[in-house]
Amino acid sequence: MRIPVLGILLLAALLRFYGLGDKSLWGDEIAQAVWSAWDWPQLWQKFRAPPDFLSHFVLVHLAHMFGTNEFWTRLPSAFTSLLTVPLAYVLTKRLTDRATALIAMLLVAVAPYQIWYAQEARMYAALGCYAILALYFMVRLVARDSDTAIRVGIGGAIQHLVTGEWKLVLGLVVGNTLVIYTHLFGVFPILAEAVIAAGLLIALWIRTRRVTMPRWAVPLLIAFGLTILLALPLAGGTVPYVLQGGKPALNQELFPSQRFQLTPAIVWEVLGDIGLGAREPWRTTLSLALAVIGLGVLAVRKPRAGWIAAVWLVLPFLLLGVAQPRHTVSARYLIFLQPVYLMLIAYAVAQGAKVLTGRLRGETRDARAWNVSPVTATFVAAGLVYLGLIVVPPLVELYPRAKLNDWRALARFIEANGRAGDLVFGERNTPNMNALTYYLPNLLRYHTPPTNVEQLEGALKENRRVWYVSAGEFFDPEGEAWARENLEIVPVSQWAEPTLRYAPESAFEYTQSEHLATLYFHDGNVPAEIVYMGRQGFTRGEIERVKVNPGETLEAELELNAGSGRDLEFEFSSKKAAAFDVTVNGALLAQVRDMEADKGARTAQWHLAAGDDTVQVRVTNRSTEFPLFIMRIALREAH
Fold first, then answer.
1. Buried (b) or exposed (e) across 569-585, using 16+ Cβ within 10 A?
2. Over 70: is that where the pLDDT of 357 sits?
3. What are the boundaries of each domain within the chain?
């Protein structure tokens, strides 16, 4: 049996690591990468409040010790998704049988939804992994209650804990602690475990007609208690969040969000995503039919396993319906349901295959012709059917799909076609700007003032070169409408990777949080003066200026249609004595050292010799400690 298990594990690894670093990070992945780069105290301080908690940021932070490109940023997700595959096998084997475990392992290994989130830097694959890890140890723990063991009492339970069950308690505590430190929705698997245990306890009392304590009860309570104790640092941020009904994901002034409503459509979407391949109606129907059959047969033959599966799959929906959070709810937040859902499908397939192979054996005259292990026959038959008819089509669609917005390709296009000092706008609350500038090699090559219609109109009146990145009417309807009317759309074919598809062209969809971006452009004149108003679209309530950190370089292209005499003006401020170099058209113009400007702005001026009317200016902050704040850079006629 080791060969099939190892073969499936190898297949799962190939599917998850194939092209892992090829695609650009999309918006939420970029946020994950940026935040994970913070130092340890900042991570601990920031991510003890919902919805995202600490653990996955720690994993990405550690991975970045080896590299910061897309591969290393996504590696923790790929690894935890891969770990889910053998966990699905051992869990299913505990709850059902070996044949079902092999099929379930295969289903998890090739599930497109698992592979998609294995190749995403966010925490969703890890959330599913830790939940299944905890459920596995809980199943092992509650299985240790034979008829003689259930009467040992608390003292005996503690003795068993000391002598042998502490490993299971430790595994359960580790799994539950990791899942709750990953995302707020990690509380659902823990609550499901509590309800499962309560149901098993009630069933025991009904069966024995007495209130008695099974030997797993005390270790389980200890495990839950330790988990709660370890989760206490999260309480300060979580309690207010929960009491307020969950923090809305978007700006409520722009996009008022309603409380979550549990509807059949939402359940149908989740089941479509975590089922056999994609959200196509026939696939969702087939998945659900097999899961219902599997649950029904399992409940009859193995009632305890049926109870565990039913609670695991149903309780999160019920809790969401009662809590009605204002947080977005989609299948990726409930990805921990998928291995158990696929286990039920595998159980239905395994039972059907066993019936089929049994009938074939009975009908043939030559019994030796069908002298094949039932496990092998079941595995081969189910695997071929599943791989050939169900998995291959969505996998064919999965790998060419871009992560919706290819910010790397957009940034490369702007870098190749833009000029120093070009205006680059995002949207009012700047999510696109933050994503785009992650890939721009030098943000200070561009002028990125806060985005509003007044700024856009002013840029057009000055006939400046303008780039505007928009996600349709999702974040900034007013700005999008203005851009559509006044700017030119850059065709996707000009900036996109030719091997990737940037919009869904089939029923195989994968949920994401951002809309497809549009790039607008206006080809204007090179200005004679640039007045800076913040960086990356932010002024943060300060004086309008751009911050140049130590070692950074601001770039600008200026043009003056005048005679031979020209002056370069540079208005700046600094917290302490400024130190910077000024380069014009590649030649060093000035080395400024210890120029005081701490009490306000100062203007430095240099005369330029006759030459081309267009000049390339670079200002490099040579201070080792303090930023340089630049308000204005201009080219003037000499007086």
1. ebbbbbeeebbbbbbbe
2. no
3. 2-246+253-398, 407-525, 546-637
